[in-house]
Structure formats: structure tokens, C-alpha cells
Amino acid sequence: MTINPIYEHIGYTTLNKEPTLKKHFPVCQEVPDGPAPQGELGDEEKGLTSLVRRATLKDNDHATKYEKVHNFKVHTFRGPHWCEYCANFMWGLIAQGVHCSDCGLNVHKQCSKLVPSDCQPDLRRIKKVFSCDLTTLVKAHNTTRPMVVDMCIKEIELRGLQSEGLYRVSGFSEHIEDVRLAFDRDGEKADISANVYNDINIIAGALKLYLRDLPIPVITFHVYSKFIQAAKMPNPDTRLEAIHEGLLLLPPAHYETLRYLMMHLKKVTMFEKDNFMNSENLGIVFGPTLMQPPEQNALATLNDMRHQKLIIQLLIEHEDVLF
User: Fold this and answer.
1) Which candidate, 117, 123, 116, places its Cα nearest to that of 137?
2) Any residues with CB less than 8 A from the CB of 77 and at least 6 apart, and which?
3) Is 302 in a helix, a strand, or coil?
4) pLDDT (tens digit, 9 = 90+) per residue, 189-209?
5) How many whole angstroms separate alpha carbon 145 and alpha carbon 235?
6) What does pTM read for this prediction?
7) Extended beta strands in the chain, E state
8) What confidence tens digit (pLDDT) does each residue in 282-317 have?
9) Helix-strand-coil percent breakdown of the chain, rounded to 5?
10) Separation between Cα atoms, residue 75 and residue 83, nearest integer Å
């Protein structure tokens, strides 16, 4: 293999250039020093003030790229094949290299450790929508959020916000499975209108199923413990600050999906008199759906449930400040 890789100069990277996606990230800005108009602020009050200030700085966009690592698997190539990273021949009769099942990149096993996280999934290789990694799906469709979330929330807000027990009442499981198959088969062309599924609980159930079946939860394994520790903090202001810091550690696709979902759930709570679903009830429903511990320990999961509920409850109630 060559010492100097030519990956950046080959056709693969040229064909898969993508525009940088932008979204609003709160920009860190400290509270100015000096006395406040009505006396000196304590450290905790300063922390919350800083949080509010960051969340209200809408003009400071933080451009970020939806980076995704390649899904490499050992592969046996038929006939001569060259590495798309170093452009050298792949030797051997079997298992000559690795193949990315999401974008089709073929490289030496050694070269796979050097390839940057710039996988651009090909829609022709994405076999399903449900149970597909969140970042993989949004990059394949070139969107900021999965269309399942957008379409289900749009339908629910159109005709279901006043439905009693929304998200708590379950729809028929076989109909929810039909919705899953429709998305996997037809993608954004799936028909989930009232003409096909009159019961809005079916659509709500399909949305919960989609979020629950993600291989990496919306609140990722990586930041799970940080959120649980934040929930245990006794001081409300410090707790919000810690949750905010945890949100900034989420991958862009996860952050945007969570932000959009919390905006929706905030709307649901505005119709509490009709649907009887407040932020605490929604926290009970969505806590285990959006947050799952990295290690499946039944006792730990049971102990974390009240903390999961509190995190989602706070995200809903303070959605306009935290995101």
C-alpha cells in the first residue's frame, strides 16, 4: 500500500460531496462581569442566566456536518479489485478487504482505520426505515430529521392533539405494524392519513415504535449517564445547565430529532384539558423510549426510570430555553 493515500483525489469523494447542514445550536456566552442592576448574582443564578442568554442568541448559527462513520464489513470480491483509499490492489482469494454496506466504499482492512467519518449512505442500499440508524437515514434522504418523525407528528397535530390519552392509549398492534411496513416499503410516500388509519393512536403508536426500535436511542448511549446524573442534581438551575450541556454532545441528527419532538410534545401539553396529557405523563411514556442504558441491566433500568421521566419532563417544559 502507498504511504501517501490518494483518497481525497478519487471519484468517491467527488461524487459524495454534500452541502453542510446548518442548525441552531445555542452559542456559549458568559455573563458579563460586574454588579447586576439589583445586586450580585450567585454562581447558580449566573449559570441559569448564561443558559437563557445562549438560548436566545438566534443569530449565531453554528454550522455543523452530519458526520457518519462507515459501516465496514469483511468482504470477498469477485475478480480483481482495488482499494478506494490507497488505490492499490487487494490481494487474496477471499476476504481481500472490507465493504461499507451503507455507501459501497471498498478498502483494505488496514485502510479502513484511516478513512474519515464521511460516509454518504446510498438510498439503494438502505433496505428499511424502521430500525435504521438515525444518522444513516437522514444522510441517505438528505434531511435534518427522519421523515417518519415529520410525517407522524404532522398527522397527529392535524387531527389528534385533543385525543384523550394521546400517546398513552395504544392503537391496535397489527395496524401499527401495517404503518411500519408502509414506511419500510414506500418511504415518504406512505399513506398514514385518516382515510387509511382513522384512529390517531395508530399513528402515535407507530411513532413510538420507530423511536423505540432505533439501534442507537435518540438520547445516545454515550450521553445517557450524563443525563441521569443531571436528573439527580438537587438544584433546579444546575440541573438545567447540566441537561443543556448534555444536549450539545448529541450527534446533529439526534439533537434535531429530539428538539423537534419536544416542540411537538409541548404543543400536546397545551391541550391537556382535552387529552389529559401533561409533561409528567408524557415523561413517563417517552422516558424509556428516548433513553436506554448502554448495558441492559434490569435493576439499573428500573432504578433509572424516574430519572428518565424527569429528564423528558424538563425537556418539554423548558424546550424554548434548552434547545
Assistant:
1) 123
2) 90, 96, 97, 106
3) helix
4) 999 999 999 999 999 999 999
5) 33
6) 0.71
7) 22-23, 62-63, 72-75, 97-100, 106-107
8) 999 999 999 999 887 777 778 899 999 999 999 999
9) 50, 5, 45
10) 12
